[in-house]
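Late entry, iron/sulfur cluster complex.
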Amino acid sequence: MLRYRLDCRGFPHLEVTVSTETLPPYPFPMRSALEPPEQWAELRAQCPVAHVRLASGDSATLLTRYDDVRAVLSDPRFTRQLDAAAGAARVTANESGGVFASSADQMGVLDSRESHQQWRRLVGATFTAKRVQALAPGMLAKAEELLDGLTAADGPVDLVSAFNFPLPIWVICELLGVPESDRSSFGHWSDTMMSLSRFTQAEIDTAQADFAGYLGGLVASKRETPGDDLVSALIALVDAADPRVTEPMVIATARGLLVAGHETTANMIGKMLAMLLSDRSRWEALVADRSLVRNAVEEVLRFDANAGFGLPRFISEDLELPDSTTIPAGTTVVVSMASANRDEEAFAAADSMDLTRSPNPHLAFGAGPHSCMGQALARTELQVVLEVLLDRLPALELAVDPAMLRTREDMLVGGLVELPVRW
Amino acid sequence: MKVNVDRHACCGAGQCVMLAPDIFDQDDEGIVVLLDDRPGEDQEHALQEAVSMCPTGVIWVDRSA
Ligand code: HEM
Ligand code: SF4
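Prediction complete; structure with ligand written out below:
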């Protein structure tokens, strides 16, 4: 207890130096797969600027309040690129730093504020609300097809492997123009690249190399036979000598989208269904009134206690938080959007799920210039999944006690190991 | 009442278009375009939702204008 207070604001007289080993390890253990760690409420109330130890052994500053989290994410000066040379903390136990050090950033696509914005505008066309809504019928058809397969036998069935993971891969592969036959390899690659410490550096390197090799081949084939997809559109710009795009950028973008959009969405589908089915009155309310679907999706995004690590930011210049506390330059900050989403100062009755909550300015997709590029897509996928399950399997229920649901350990993005259901 | 947007800071997430398609659209880079800067009262709820859920906070309503 005292450990948290040692370097908390409000207790300056207690400020002493503690060694990193004595700092509380982060991420905190969950109480159960659907309940937040008890530290969040404690830290929001008593220690909103806390010091923690990451899996790498390095220390970082953890922010848990809504206003602070939003302020850091909205500040265009700071990015998730953790520059070790400038003294940033390492997130993962392995040296590559996992996904935060990779994806599009690695290729220098996002190395400055200007080029990051330019990149977002280049790929922006793919993610407009209208383009995404146009994908909904295809998503629905794929979801129906997956359900046909899994309901052919009697339950129980594990939705995580039979439904939640295949659907978002299919959607991203559709955007990128990846042929159907190649889509199953992606699960393994993104799994490995999203790990905090489950895989060795050699395994991560192999997955990254295989993935890069595959994407190189994909680009070559799109040059030959272009389709109506993002890779074809970008490579056409490269070939037309558009100064904004290079071939490595196209590969980095394709890779970044798969990594950013697969596990996140797959895990969120599982957590959404677990939250709605663990208290069946929620599911029944949706069966009875479909107009709740849109707000229900926002509310499960807000309520998700198993969101994983949060986001790191390297504070390259002194930062003043909304309540005037200063975070000094050189600090590695981790913001917990999931804790912010439970902040009573920002949401009335924050600890209860309200399927009619509106507006619901949760931070599940981040905020500011780096906020999730795929959020319209992810929202649409979640809405389609919910609609199709409510239609096809209104009697859906968990086949295990919710207390038995297990969290995937050691991944940057939180999710459930399995979601056994029957109908 | 007048709706304003800062197109320069918009991150193109399309949340406003999902929520209030009669007021907002996106151009071919995903950047917000105002379709109607003086929406009627029937749009009030959708507008408020878009204002509060815009991830970059670049939509604001001038009540005096
Ligand atoms: C429920 C599912 C999802 C969640 C919870 C989620 C969450 C997030 C968050 C919190 C960020 C902010 C990262 C930061 O600020 O450093 C982000 C960024 C991003 N997301 Fe998502 N995401 C989801 C689905 C998707 C999908 C489906 C795609 C695309 C296919 C996608 C593409 C991206 C991209 C490209 C970025 C980087 C944006 C940038 O750096 O400018 N996401 N996502
Ligand atoms: S919600 Fe905000 S950031 Fe997103 S497109 Fe609309 S104005 Fe731009």
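The mean pLDDT of chain B is 95. Will revisit in the morning.
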